[in-house]
Design brief:
The complex is a heterodimer of chains A (278) and B (88).
Chain A (H helix, E strand, L loop, with lengths): L3 E6 L3 H5 L8 E5 L9 H14 L6 E5 L6 H11 L6 E4 L4 H14 L5 E5 L2 H5 L1 H6 L3 E6 L1 H8 L11 H13 L3 E4 L8 H14 L3 E4 L5 H8 L3 H17 L4 E3 L2 E3 L1 H16 L5
Parallel strand pairs in A: 1-2, 1-8, 2-3, 3-4, 4-5, 5-6, 6-7, 7-8
Antiparallel strand pairs in A: 9-10
Helix pairs in contact in A: 2-3, 9-10, 11-12
Chain B lengths: L3 E4 L6 E7 L4 E6 L2 H18 L5 E7 L4 H21 L1
Parallel strand pairs in B: 3-4
Antiparallel strand pairs in B: 1-2, 2-4
């Protein structure tokens, strides 16, 4: 599980070579929107050549392939990356129908990559629950730009227009213990707006936020890491449980039981992973 | 046949131009030529050999590309070159 997923274009060597200096928990190398149609093959060749020679232990790597309705592009992407040491693929324009096609292709080609599906159409929002349940799905990522285009509306800072989609994704993902990843904040230089947007997404229950600019990673980590107060509280709960050897007790007048203790342990585990435990 | 141009002049990248030639010839312009000119030439020769291409002029404008990027850009250029050659 990651807090941040940073998109970088697959056809820019300068970005590929620096993917471990952006401090993102996960990198998504993009073959789709940020790569022009006549550059797709170059993105595949560059990424393939780069990842065949360079390995990143501390970083989770994903590749956003082209959507499965563009069969030739999708299959060329998959053939280029299927032997690479990556954590999974990011699948644009996911729907149940698209997932079925990918599933059949993966079975045929013996590919086992987990999939992060981008929910970016009204149909996908409505199908989010069943998509989240799918065995290959690792997480759902909201693609608000394409979604609002389909809805015939525009993005705003208060994000009212994507509230339903955000909530639907969080509920669907959480129901099946999958990751819920919020949409990138597209106003690259608006740090204050990013903070508001990231905080809102974290409060709704998203586990991570995607970004399209390295400068956003620090702010995203701030809002998607466990807070000092939450870590302190979790430590107290786990310590008291151990001390009393009990999964049910009262702490500061509040009832603590197994779900609360499990949540505290999970929070401490995440805090340790992100290096914010002490 | 039109020259095939692949890559960019951004830092860490290279622009490769392929044109038909009777034999293999290579021209390299690089910001790091003194230190890496021979290494760049080696990557180009190996990649041409790997793809069995012997009748092309390779013009490389290098902006500090690493081996993998030169190899990938040249491979892409060779694919396009062959595709163009098949069509013409």
């Amino acid at each position: 599980m990651s807090r941040s997923y940073l998109f970088i274009p697959g056809d820019v060597p300068r970005m590929l070579q620096n993917l471990d200096v952006f401090d993102a928990d996960s990198i998504i190398i993009d073959f789709e929107d940020s790569v022009a149609i006549d550059q797709k093959d170059e993105a595949r060749l560059l990424t393939q050549a780069f990842l065949s020679k360079h390995h990143f232990k501390e970083l989770d790597l994903y590749i956003r392939v082209n959507d499965v309705s563009q069969k030739t592009l999708f299959e060329a992407d998959m053939q280029a990356i299927k032997a690479l040491n990556i954590h999974g693929i990011v699948l644009p324009k996911v729907t149940l129908e698209a997932l079925d096609s990918v599933d059949a292709f993966f079975d045929r080609e013996n590919i086992t990559f987990p999939i992060i599906g981008i929910i970016e159409t009204p149909l996908a929002v409505l199908e989010a629950q069943t998509i989240a349940k799918h065995k290959r799905i690792q997480g759902l990522l909201l693609g608000a730009e394409d979604l609002t285009k389909d809805l015939g509306t525009t993005r705003t800072l208060d994000a009212e227009e994507i509230l339903f989609a955000r909530s639907q994704i969080v509920f669907a993902a959480k129901a099946y213990q999958k990751e819920a990843i919020d949409t990138p904040y597209v106003f690259v230089r608006d740090e204050a707006g990013l903070a508001v947007d990231a905080q809102r997404a974290a409060r709704l229950g998203f586990t991570a936020k995607a970004s399209i600019h390295p400068n956003h990673v620090e702010t995203i980590h701030h809002y998607f890491s466990p807070s000092k107060e939450a870590i302190h509280e979790a430590k107290r709960i786990v310590a008291q449980s151990k001390k009393l050897n009990s999964m049910r007790f009262s702490l500061d007048g509040s009832m603590v039981d197994k779900p609360v203790i499990d949540r505290a342990k999970a929070l401490l585990k995440r805090a340790e992973k992100y290096g914010v435990l002490s | 046949m039109k020259p095939i141009v692949v890559g960019s002049l951004e830092s860490s990248d290279c622009l490769i131009t392929l044109t038909p030639s009777k034999t293999t010839t290579i021209t390299i312009e690089s910001i790091v030529y003194d230190a890496f000119g021979d290494a760049i030439e080696q990557v180009i020769k190996q990649t041409l050999k790997h793809h069995g291409l012997h009748d092309v002029h390779v013009y490389v404008q290098d902006k500090g590309a690493l081996d993998y990027a030169i190899e990938a850009r040249l491979t892409s250029a060779i694919k396009r070159y062959r595709s163009e050659a098949d069509e013409s």
